[in-house]
Predict the 3D structure of the following.
Amino acid sequence: MAINVHEIDLAADSSSNVVRVTVSGKLTTEDYELFVPEVERLIEEHGKIRILFEMDDFHGWKLGALWEDLKFDLKHFHDIERLAMIGDKAWEHGMATFCRPFTKAKIRYFEKGQEEQARQWLEEQS
């Protein structure tokens, strides 16, 4: 299944618990209103999920969206096993460190062009 919501593109393979999330531009509260129910459905379907989070010309969050993101992170603290982040800006790399207190997921940052390595890492057994 794939949905495209404003600045978020979500793709999930029904045979796997890996969810690919591509973000661009600046995320808004409306993006989360459409995105969160789909991710929660996948969590319900698979139990724990693994996320490939790719930032493509990403400019961060508007204030309301940042609040929605923090609420999502706290609610799903235990539901995400691994989070592979792909980006090309120094602040995006820093997000991998920033996210750690908000999840029990193993988090790893990858540079643009390392998507295959990120996928392999996501699919490894814990």
Observations:
- The first strand starts at residue 2 and ends at 5.
- The radius of gyration is 13 Å.
